[in-house]
Design brief:
CATH topology: Purple Acid Phosphatase, chain A, domain 2
CATH architecture: 4-Layer Sandwich
Shape: globular
Number of domains: 1
Strand content: 25-35%
Helix content: 10-25%
Largest sheet: 8 strands, mixed
CATH superfamily: Metallo-dependent phosphatases
Radius of gyration: 21 Å
Length: 410
Protein backbone atom coordinates (compact mmCIF):
# COMPACT_ATOMS: atom_id res chain seq x y z
CA UNK A 1 0.00 0.00 0.00
CA UNK A 2 1.33 3.42 -0.92
CA UNK A 3 1.77 6.22 1.61
CA UNK A 4 -1.28 8.39 2.26
CA UNK A 5 0.71 11.60 2.66
CA UNK A 6 3.17 13.46 0.51
CA UNK A 7 5.98 11.27 1.80
CA UNK A 8 9.44 11.38 0.24
CA UNK A 9 11.38 8.50 1.77
CA UNK A 10 15.13 8.79 1.30
CA UNK A 11 14.43 11.27 -1.45
CA UNK A 12 17.00 10.67 -4.16
CA UNK A 13 16.49 13.96 -5.91
CA UNK A 14 19.59 15.58 -4.63
CA UNK A 15 23.10 15.12 -6.08
CA UNK A 16 22.38 16.05 -9.65
CA UNK A 17 25.85 15.85 -11.19
CA UNK A 18 26.25 12.63 -13.14
CA UNK A 19 29.70 11.90 -14.52
CA UNK A 20 30.31 9.47 -17.35
CA UNK A 21 33.11 7.03 -16.57
CA UNK A 22 33.25 5.84 -20.15
CA UNK A 23 31.07 5.70 -23.21
CA UNK A 24 30.14 2.13 -22.37
CA UNK A 25 28.98 2.96 -18.84
CA UNK A 26 25.26 2.90 -18.12
CA UNK A 27 25.06 6.37 -16.62
CA UNK A 28 22.70 7.13 -13.76
CA UNK A 29 22.54 10.35 -11.73
CA UNK A 30 25.14 10.33 -8.97
CA UNK A 31 23.28 10.95 -5.70
CA UNK A 32 26.01 12.60 -3.64
CA UNK A 33 23.59 13.80 -1.00
CA UNK A 34 20.59 11.96 0.36
CA UNK A 35 17.78 13.48 2.35
CA UNK A 36 15.22 11.66 4.40
CA UNK A 37 12.12 13.78 4.04
CA UNK A 38 9.27 13.38 6.47
CA UNK A 39 5.59 13.82 5.72
CA UNK A 40 3.93 17.21 5.75
CA UNK A 41 2.56 16.68 9.24
CA UNK A 42 5.45 14.46 10.39
CA UNK A 43 2.93 11.68 10.93
CA UNK A 44 1.79 9.15 8.32
CA UNK A 45 -1.86 9.33 7.43
CA UNK A 46 -3.72 6.17 8.26
CA UNK A 47 -7.34 5.20 8.52
CA UNK A 48 -8.24 6.35 12.01
CA UNK A 49 -10.82 4.72 14.24
CA UNK A 50 -10.97 7.36 16.98
CA UNK A 51 -13.31 5.40 19.23
CA UNK A 52 -15.92 2.70 19.20
CA UNK A 53 -18.64 5.30 18.81
CA UNK A 54 -17.13 7.62 16.20
CA UNK A 55 -17.20 6.65 12.50
CA UNK A 56 -14.08 5.48 10.74
CA UNK A 57 -12.22 8.03 8.64
CA UNK A 58 -10.47 6.78 5.51
CA UNK A 59 -8.17 8.74 3.24
CA UNK A 60 -7.01 8.24 -0.33
CA UNK A 61 -4.57 10.26 -2.42
CA UNK A 62 -4.45 10.76 -6.18
CA UNK A 63 -1.66 12.17 -8.34
CA UNK A 64 -1.99 13.29 -11.95
CA UNK A 65 0.86 14.12 -14.31
CA UNK A 66 0.88 15.96 -17.61
CA UNK A 67 1.84 14.82 -21.10
CA UNK A 68 4.37 12.02 -21.56
CA UNK A 69 6.09 12.55 -24.92
CA UNK A 70 9.21 11.30 -26.69
CA UNK A 71 10.73 13.40 -29.48
CA UNK A 72 13.50 12.13 -31.76
CA UNK A 73 16.41 13.43 -29.60
CA UNK A 74 14.93 11.67 -26.54
CA UNK A 75 14.59 8.40 -28.42
CA UNK A 76 18.20 8.66 -29.55
CA UNK A 77 19.39 9.50 -26.04
CA UNK A 78 17.48 6.63 -24.46
CA UNK A 79 19.31 4.03 -26.53
CA UNK A 80 22.24 2.38 -24.77
CA UNK A 81 24.61 0.97 -27.40
CA UNK A 82 26.19 -1.36 -24.84
CA UNK A 83 23.03 -3.05 -23.63
CA UNK A 84 21.25 -2.37 -26.93
CA UNK A 85 18.21 -1.37 -24.90
CA UNK A 86 16.16 1.80 -24.58
CA UNK A 87 16.52 3.03 -21.01
CA UNK A 88 14.20 5.53 -19.33
CA UNK A 89 14.55 4.94 -15.60
CA UNK A 90 16.89 7.91 -15.15
CA UNK A 91 14.28 10.25 -16.65
CA UNK A 92 11.85 9.58 -13.78
CA UNK A 93 14.47 8.94 -11.09
CA UNK A 94 13.95 12.23 -9.25
CA UNK A 95 10.15 12.05 -9.41
CA UNK A 96 9.75 8.44 -8.31
CA UNK A 97 9.40 9.20 -4.56
CA UNK A 98 6.65 11.70 -5.38
CA UNK A 99 4.77 9.57 -7.91
CA UNK A 100 4.86 6.54 -5.63
CA UNK A 101 3.67 8.49 -2.58
CA UNK A 102 -0.01 8.44 -3.59
CA UNK A 103 -2.45 5.56 -3.52
CA UNK A 104 -3.08 6.04 -7.24
CA UNK A 105 -1.07 7.93 -9.85
CA UNK A 106 -2.31 8.58 -13.40
CA UNK A 107 -0.29 9.83 -16.39
CA UNK A 108 -1.18 10.83 -19.95
CA UNK A 109 0.62 8.66 -22.54
CA UNK A 110 0.74 10.92 -25.58
CA UNK A 111 2.34 8.46 -28.00
CA UNK A 112 2.10 4.89 -29.24
CA UNK A 113 4.26 1.96 -28.15
CA UNK A 114 6.08 -0.80 -29.97
CA UNK A 115 8.47 -3.64 -29.18
CA UNK A 116 10.48 -3.07 -32.35
CA UNK A 117 11.75 -0.06 -34.32
CA UNK A 118 11.33 2.24 -36.09
CA UNK A 119 10.74 4.60 -33.18
CA UNK A 120 9.74 8.11 -34.13
CA UNK A 121 9.04 11.49 -32.60
CA UNK A 122 7.07 14.38 -34.01
CA UNK A 123 4.74 14.31 -35.89
CA UNK A 124 3.94 10.59 -35.51
CA UNK A 125 5.04 9.42 -32.09
CA UNK A 126 6.11 5.84 -31.34
CA UNK A 127 8.38 4.75 -28.49
CA UNK A 128 9.91 1.57 -27.19
CA UNK A 129 7.87 -0.37 -24.66
CA UNK A 130 10.53 0.23 -22.02
CA UNK A 131 9.13 3.72 -21.59
CA UNK A 132 5.95 2.18 -20.17
CA UNK A 133 8.03 -0.15 -17.99
CA UNK A 134 9.88 2.82 -16.50
CA UNK A 135 6.66 4.74 -15.94
CA UNK A 136 5.23 1.81 -14.03
CA UNK A 137 8.45 1.37 -12.05
CA UNK A 138 8.39 5.06 -11.11
CA UNK A 139 5.02 4.75 -9.39
CA UNK A 140 2.50 5.43 -12.15
CA UNK A 141 -0.51 3.14 -11.72
CA UNK A 142 -2.59 3.95 -14.78
CA UNK A 143 -2.24 5.55 -18.22
CA UNK A 144 -4.84 7.40 -20.26
CA UNK A 145 -4.36 6.95 -24.00
CA UNK A 146 -6.99 9.06 -25.79
CA UNK A 147 -5.19 12.03 -27.34
CA UNK A 148 -4.43 13.61 -30.69
CA UNK A 149 -1.55 11.15 -31.26
CA UNK A 150 -3.52 7.96 -30.57
CA UNK A 151 -3.74 7.17 -34.29
CA UNK A 152 -0.22 8.24 -35.26
CA UNK A 153 0.65 4.68 -36.32
CA UNK A 154 -2.87 3.87 -37.45
CA UNK A 155 -4.54 0.63 -36.37
CA UNK A 156 -1.27 -1.17 -35.75
CA UNK A 157 -0.19 1.53 -33.31
CA UNK A 158 -3.41 1.39 -31.31
CA UNK A 159 -3.32 -2.42 -31.16
CA UNK A 160 0.36 -2.61 -30.22
CA UNK A 161 0.00 0.01 -27.50
CA UNK A 162 -2.95 -1.72 -25.88
CA UNK A 163 -1.36 -5.17 -26.15
CA UNK A 164 1.91 -3.96 -24.63
CA UNK A 165 0.16 -2.27 -21.71
CA UNK A 166 -1.94 -5.38 -21.13
CA UNK A 167 1.17 -7.58 -21.20
CA UNK A 168 2.72 -5.33 -18.54
CA UNK A 169 -0.49 -5.48 -16.49
CA UNK A 170 -0.53 -1.70 -16.71
CA UNK A 171 -4.12 -0.38 -16.37
CA UNK A 172 -5.19 2.03 -19.10
CA UNK A 173 -8.24 3.60 -20.67
CA UNK A 174 -9.22 5.88 -23.55
CA UNK A 175 -8.53 3.62 -26.54
CA UNK A 176 -9.90 0.14 -27.21
CA UNK A 177 -9.32 -2.76 -29.60
CA UNK A 178 -13.04 -3.09 -30.32
CA UNK A 179 -16.37 -1.53 -29.49
CA UNK A 180 -17.16 -4.66 -27.50
CA UNK A 181 -14.05 -4.06 -25.40
CA UNK A 182 -15.16 -0.50 -24.71
CA UNK A 183 -18.63 -1.69 -23.76
CA UNK A 184 -17.08 -4.08 -21.25
CA UNK A 185 -14.22 -1.99 -19.86
CA UNK A 186 -15.57 1.56 -19.87
CA UNK A 187 -15.86 3.57 -17.76
CA UNK A 188 -12.81 2.26 -15.94
CA UNK A 189 -13.46 1.57 -12.26
CA UNK A 190 -10.70 2.01 -9.69
CA UNK A 191 -11.56 0.08 -6.53
CA UNK A 192 -8.74 0.53 -4.02
CA UNK A 193 -8.44 0.76 -0.22
CA UNK A 194 -12.14 1.25 0.37
CA UNK A 195 -12.60 3.90 -2.35
CA UNK A 196 -14.37 3.44 -5.65
CA UNK A 197 -13.62 5.86 -8.50
CA UNK A 198 -14.76 6.00 -12.11
CA UNK A 199 -12.24 7.17 -14.71
CA UNK A 200 -13.18 8.53 -18.15
CA UNK A 201 -10.89 9.85 -20.90
CA UNK A 202 -11.53 11.78 -24.14
CA UNK A 203 -9.69 13.70 -26.85
CA UNK A 204 -10.75 16.53 -29.13
CA UNK A 205 -9.42 14.68 -32.19
CA UNK A 206 -6.62 12.64 -33.74
CA UNK A 207 -4.82 15.19 -35.96
CA UNK A 208 -7.08 14.50 -38.91
CA UNK A 209 -6.25 10.78 -39.00
CA UNK A 210 -9.48 8.75 -39.03
CA UNK A 211 -9.90 6.33 -36.15
CA UNK A 212 -9.14 2.93 -37.74
CA UNK A 213 -12.13 0.72 -38.40
CA UNK A 214 -12.89 -1.63 -35.57
CA UNK A 215 -10.87 0.25 -32.95
CA UNK A 216 -12.14 2.96 -30.62
CA UNK A 217 -10.56 6.25 -29.58
CA UNK A 218 -12.80 8.19 -27.21
CA UNK A 219 -13.61 11.51 -28.86
CA UNK A 220 -15.16 14.50 -27.13
CA UNK A 221 -18.87 14.32 -27.86
CA UNK A 222 -21.29 15.76 -25.33
CA UNK A 223 -24.02 13.24 -26.05
CA UNK A 224 -21.67 10.30 -25.63
CA UNK A 225 -20.00 11.81 -22.57
CA UNK A 226 -23.38 12.26 -20.90
CA UNK A 227 -24.22 8.61 -21.59
CA UNK A 228 -20.85 7.53 -20.20
CA UNK A 229 -21.31 9.63 -17.08
CA UNK A 230 -24.74 8.09 -16.54
CA UNK A 231 -23.22 4.65 -16.87
CA UNK A 232 -20.46 5.59 -14.46
CA UNK A 233 -23.00 6.72 -11.89
CA UNK A 234 -24.67 3.32 -12.06
CA UNK A 235 -21.53 1.88 -10.45
CA UNK A 236 -22.08 4.23 -7.49
CA UNK A 237 -18.50 5.54 -7.39
CA UNK A 238 -17.28 7.86 -4.67
CA UNK A 239 -15.97 10.26 -7.32
CA UNK A 240 -16.01 10.47 -11.12
CA UNK A 241 -12.79 11.61 -12.82
CA UNK A 242 -12.63 12.83 -16.42
CA UNK A 243 -9.31 13.41 -18.17
CA UNK A 244 -9.67 15.45 -21.34
CA UNK A 245 -7.28 16.23 -24.18
CA UNK A 246 -8.44 19.67 -25.26
CA UNK A 247 -7.68 23.37 -25.68
CA UNK A 248 -5.32 25.48 -27.78
CA UNK A 249 -1.65 24.57 -27.77
CA UNK A 250 0.72 26.99 -26.00
CA UNK A 251 -2.10 29.11 -24.55
CA UNK A 252 -1.92 29.71 -20.81
CA UNK A 253 -5.64 30.26 -20.32
CA UNK A 254 -8.50 27.88 -21.14
CA UNK A 255 -10.75 28.78 -24.04
CA UNK A 256 -14.53 29.01 -23.95
CA UNK A 257 -14.95 25.46 -25.26
CA UNK A 258 -12.87 24.07 -22.40
CA UNK A 259 -14.81 26.02 -19.78
CA UNK A 260 -18.19 25.10 -21.27
CA UNK A 261 -17.30 21.41 -21.52
CA UNK A 262 -15.95 21.37 -17.97
CA UNK A 263 -19.18 22.91 -16.66
CA UNK A 264 -21.25 20.46 -18.72
CA UNK A 265 -19.38 17.45 -17.35
CA UNK A 266 -19.62 18.68 -13.76
CA UNK A 267 -23.34 19.28 -14.18
CA UNK A 268 -23.75 15.73 -15.49
CA UNK A 269 -21.83 13.98 -12.75
CA UNK A 270 -18.08 14.59 -13.06
CA UNK A 271 -16.29 15.60 -9.86
CA UNK A 272 -12.65 15.88 -10.94
CA UNK A 273 -11.60 17.15 -14.37
CA UNK A 274 -7.97 17.04 -15.47
CA UNK A 275 -6.91 18.64 -18.75
CA UNK A 276 -4.03 17.82 -21.10
CA UNK A 277 -2.70 18.91 -24.52
CA UNK A 278 -1.78 22.64 -24.47
CA UNK A 279 1.85 21.76 -23.45
CA UNK A 280 1.80 24.67 -21.00
CA UNK A 281 0.19 25.11 -17.62
CA UNK A 282 -3.33 26.43 -17.33
CA UNK A 283 -5.26 27.38 -14.15
CA UNK A 284 -6.55 25.01 -11.48
CA UNK A 285 -9.77 25.33 -9.49
CA UNK A 286 -11.00 23.71 -6.28
CA UNK A 287 -14.36 24.74 -4.85
CA UNK A 288 -17.66 23.59 -3.40
CA UNK A 289 -20.59 23.87 -5.80
CA UNK A 290 -23.49 25.05 -3.65
CA UNK A 291 -26.11 24.21 -6.29
CA UNK A 292 -24.85 20.69 -7.00
CA UNK A 293 -23.82 20.26 -3.36
CA UNK A 294 -20.46 18.69 -4.10
CA UNK A 295 -16.74 19.36 -4.26
CA UNK A 296 -15.41 20.20 -7.73
CA UNK A 297 -11.82 20.10 -9.00
CA UNK A 298 -10.90 21.48 -12.42
CA UNK A 299 -7.38 21.50 -13.82
CA UNK A 300 -7.36 22.89 -17.34
CA UNK A 301 -3.82 21.81 -18.33
CA UNK A 302 -0.90 20.17 -16.51
CA UNK A 303 1.61 21.04 -19.23
CA UNK A 304 4.45 18.70 -20.20
CA UNK A 305 5.59 16.02 -17.80
CA UNK A 306 8.36 14.88 -20.14
CA UNK A 307 9.15 16.06 -23.67
CA UNK A 308 11.89 17.77 -25.66
CA UNK A 309 9.97 21.01 -26.08
CA UNK A 310 12.23 23.83 -24.88
CA UNK A 311 10.42 27.02 -25.79
CA UNK A 312 9.37 29.24 -22.93
CA UNK A 313 6.67 27.72 -20.67
CA UNK A 314 6.81 24.31 -22.42
CA UNK A 315 9.88 22.95 -20.63
CA UNK A 316 7.92 21.85 -17.58
CA UNK A 317 4.52 21.39 -16.03
CA UNK A 318 2.96 20.33 -12.75
CA UNK A 319 1.70 17.29 -10.97
CA UNK A 320 -1.52 17.64 -9.01
CA UNK A 321 -2.21 15.85 -5.75
CA UNK A 322 -5.77 15.40 -4.49
CA UNK A 323 -6.59 14.00 -1.05
CA UNK A 324 -9.97 12.35 -0.56
CA UNK A 325 -11.53 11.63 2.81
CA UNK A 326 -14.37 9.21 3.54
CA UNK A 327 -16.55 9.30 6.62
CA UNK A 328 -19.99 7.71 6.93
CA UNK A 329 -19.80 6.82 3.21
CA UNK A 330 -19.47 10.53 2.34
CA UNK A 331 -16.35 11.35 0.34
CA UNK A 332 -14.97 14.89 0.29
CA UNK A 333 -11.91 16.58 -1.15
CA UNK A 334 -9.85 17.29 1.96
CA UNK A 335 -6.73 18.78 0.34
CA UNK A 336 -5.38 19.73 -3.08
CA UNK A 337 -2.05 21.09 -4.23
CA UNK A 338 0.41 21.11 -7.10
CA UNK A 339 4.14 20.57 -7.51
CA UNK A 340 5.90 22.42 -10.31
CA UNK A 341 8.17 20.17 -12.37
CA UNK A 342 10.91 21.17 -14.78
CA UNK A 343 12.77 19.15 -17.42
CA UNK A 344 16.55 19.38 -17.53
CA UNK A 345 18.83 18.01 -20.24
CA UNK A 346 22.40 16.91 -19.68
CA UNK A 347 25.06 15.69 -22.09
CA UNK A 348 27.03 12.79 -20.61
CA UNK A 349 29.59 11.29 -22.94
CA UNK A 350 27.95 10.78 -26.29
CA UNK A 351 24.43 10.53 -24.89
CA UNK A 352 21.92 13.17 -23.91
CA UNK A 353 19.82 12.56 -20.79
CA UNK A 354 16.49 14.07 -19.76
CA UNK A 355 15.51 14.43 -16.11
CA UNK A 356 12.21 15.58 -14.58
CA UNK A 357 12.95 17.65 -11.48
CA UNK A 358 10.71 18.88 -8.63
CA UNK A 359 11.36 22.57 -9.26
CA UNK A 360 10.94 23.96 -5.76
CA UNK A 361 13.64 21.71 -4.32
CA UNK A 362 16.17 22.65 -7.00
CA UNK A 363 15.22 26.29 -6.61
CA UNK A 364 16.61 25.95 -3.08
CA UNK A 365 19.72 24.12 -4.31
CA UNK A 366 21.18 26.07 -7.25
CA UNK A 367 24.52 24.33 -6.79
CA UNK A 368 23.00 21.16 -8.20
CA UNK A 369 22.28 22.73 -11.61
CA UNK A 370 24.39 24.36 -14.26
CA UNK A 371 24.06 28.13 -14.49
CA UNK A 372 22.17 27.86 -17.81
CA UNK A 373 19.77 25.26 -16.43
CA UNK A 374 19.15 27.29 -13.28
CA UNK A 375 18.28 30.38 -15.32
CA UNK A 376 15.85 28.44 -17.52
CA UNK A 377 14.23 26.74 -14.56
CA UNK A 378 13.86 30.02 -12.68
CA UNK A 379 12.12 31.55 -15.70
CA UNK A 380 9.72 28.60 -15.86
CA UNK A 381 9.00 28.86 -12.13
CA UNK A 382 8.42 32.60 -12.32
CA UNK A 383 6.08 32.31 -15.32
CA UNK A 384 4.15 29.48 -13.70
CA UNK A 385 3.71 31.14 -10.33
CA UNK A 386 2.55 34.41 -11.84
CA UNK A 387 -0.08 32.58 -13.89
CA UNK A 388 -1.32 30.27 -11.16
CA UNK A 389 -1.26 32.89 -8.39
CA UNK A 390 -3.50 35.11 -10.50
CA UNK A 391 -5.93 32.52 -11.80
CA UNK A 392 -5.97 29.50 -9.45
CA UNK A 393 -8.90 29.05 -7.07
CA UNK A 394 -8.03 27.39 -3.74
CA UNK A 395 -5.20 25.43 -5.35
CA UNK A 396 -1.88 26.14 -3.61
CA UNK A 397 1.63 24.96 -4.44
CA UNK A 398 3.64 22.40 -2.54
CA UNK A 399 7.02 24.04 -1.92
CA UNK A 400 10.21 22.78 -0.34
CA UNK A 401 11.02 24.36 3.02
CA UNK A 402 14.75 23.99 3.53
CA UNK A 403 14.69 25.07 7.18
CA UNK A 404 12.45 22.15 8.13
CA UNK A 405 13.49 19.73 5.39
CA UNK A 406 9.95 19.20 4.25
CA UNK A 407 7.29 20.01 1.65
CA UNK A 408 4.47 22.32 2.69
CA UNK A 409 1.50 23.97 1.04
CA UNK A 410 2.24 27.59 0.27
Amino acid sequence: MKKHLFCFLLLAIIGYSAIAQSDSTIVQPNDTLMAQVDTITNNPKVAVDTSTTEPEIKEFSLIFTGDVMQHDPQIKGAYNPVTKEYEYDSTFHYMTPILSSAEYTIANLELTLSKKPPYTGYPTFCSNENLAVSLKNSGVDCLVTANNHSCDKRKRGIVKTINILDSLQFPHTGTFLTQAARDTLYPMIIDEYGFKLALLNYTYGTNGIPVPKGTVVNLIDKVQIKKDLERAKQSKPDKIIVITHWGYEYKSLPNKQQKDLADYMVKNGADIIIGMHPHVLQPMENYYDTLLKKDVVKVYSLGNFISNQRRRKTDGGAIVRIELQKQDSVVTVSEVGHVLTWIDRKQIGKRMYWYILPASYYEQHPELLSKASKEKMDLFIDDSRKLLKKHNINFPEYVWKEEIGNWVLK
